[in-house]
Fold this sequence. Notes:
Largest sheet: 2 strands, antiparallel
Bound molecules: zinc ion
Structural class: mainly alpha
Helix content: 55-70%
Number of helices: 4
Shape: rod-shaped
Amino acid sequence: MEKASENKLSSYFVPLTQDQIKNEDENIDYYDEYCKLYVYNLLLKQKIDELAVEKDRFQKRLSNLEESLSNGKKKRHRRTADKIERHYTCPICGKSYGSEASVNNHVKLKHS
Ligand SMILES: [Zn+2]
């Protein structure tokens, strides 16, 4: 009895047809049903795990895409050199900069 059920396990991997389901309804073998449900649940669990991995992959790809899109926007919206107001002038060469820090940086780099 148990041996026969074990041998049948592999057949459960194929979904039952409507006729097969009807025929089995007339004479329900509960151990058989138990095995079937167990295997189906294993398969479902496996499928869910696979889908979860796939979902993670897609989510990563999506966030990468969103990141590269927003990077592109940042680049486009960045002020161009001529639009930066330059109120700070290098006391040595007269070049103008947008901030005191920029001038200091320039002086350190070019004039020391
Ligand atoms: Zn200078």
